[in-house]
Amino acid sequence: MTIVLKKIKGDKLIWAIATLLAIVSFLPVYSAASNLAYIGGGSNTFAFFIKHFVHLLLGFIIMYSVHKIPYRYFRGLSIIMIPVVLLLLALTMFQGDNSESLTNARRWIRIPFIGFTFQPSTLASVVLMVYVARYLSKIKAKKITFRESIFPLWTPVFLVLGCILPANFSTAALIFFMVIVLVFLGGYPKRYIGLILLTGALTLALFILLAKAYPKAMPNRIDTWTSRIESFMNGKDTKANYQIEKAKIAIASGGIRGLGPGKSKQKNFLPQSSSDFIFAIIIEEYGLLGAVVLISLYLWLLFRILIVSQKSNTFFGKLLAVGVGLPIIFQALVNMGVAVEIFPVTGQTLPLISSGGTSIWMTCLSIGIVLSVSVKHQKITKENKATDPLDILRKTI
């Protein structure tokens, strides 16, 4: 254990927070998986527990491996990976109906020989944020026109979003919002951001009109979005509203201290109790106190991400840490907001807590990148101390 800890670099508190979130996830996932085991027939709850453990183990291996890579290399990798993620998204979009999806969404591809399913949109989100950070750092000292930024910046953004939107509106909207936040923080002219927001709204409107005109091209997607928004706005009796009602019952049942580990009742009625609505199960079993602890961990992670960004010695490092770090926190807030009916049902998981391989792996990838930025700062600080005359004098005395 000591040898492993010595090899771990970067912000130790981020490592600690990620580890705590992973540890916290085991009991709720094990508890909520009983419903999945029942639906699965011959499966058992422990099998889902082992699967979650394997996903987290692979995720932390990814995190460890990535944090060893100097973050400057991600500049070039983002350019290479943009065509790769576009190809993966295209394959996912045109592979045919996914029978595993209740909403007829085409979101996953199956990895050959392994048996795992992979959601390319989550990888696309990380790659796109790195790419945008690279571009913004490149033009920092330049004065550019809107036309000059259309091809190198916005064309990849809208291509990626265009591939994700037909199957997953919530993910596309989340990525678009995070890109807007990043370009704002990166000093991109505000009037250009306004043009992009207008373009995005018009593109979405055009997409909805086309989907309505040609419903066979994207079956059920617009109807799914409409039903979720309607159930959120006026309590219409839909499947999405059913899930929200069960989540609210779970939250109300939890009270201050909760019913206790494994004692959730609503996990037997919530279809996505171990993923999309695991926050409601956590409150039911661990109460308001458990929810406060969980929210505090995410806010602590946000605080450490901002510190890493602030301490980075390059503009790219600052934007990179924020660009891949903020979406983790925002996704967590959206997931929790859905459970308490602040937002419509979106299908976003709770990072490092919900079951599901792709979400865990890409969250760990993002945290690994943030840690890579913090590693560089620690090296510079160490080098500065080594060359400090006062420090040298202390060592010689």
What are the key terms here?
397 residues; mainly alpha; two-stranded antiparallel sheet; 2 strands
Detailed description of the structure:
With 397 residues, the chain is mostly helical. It has one domain. Helix content is 72%, strand content 1%. The chain has 14 helices and two strands. It has a two-stranded antiparallel ribbon with strand order 1-2. The chain is globular.
Mean pLDDT: 83
Instruction: Provide a count of the helices.
Output: 14
Beta strands, count: 2
What is the spatial order of strands in the main beta sheet?
1-2
- Proportion in β-strands: under 5%
Shape: globular
Main β-sheet, in a few words? 2 strands, antiparallel
- Which spans of ≥5 residues are poorly predicted at pLDDT below 50? 98-105
* Helix content percent band: over 70%
Q: Could you spell the SSE succession in H and E letters?
A: HHHHEEHHHHHHHHHH
- Structural class estimated from helices and strands: mainly alpha
Rounded to an integer, what's the Rg over CA atoms? 22 Å
End-to-end span in angstroms? 34 Å
Our count of domains comes out at 1
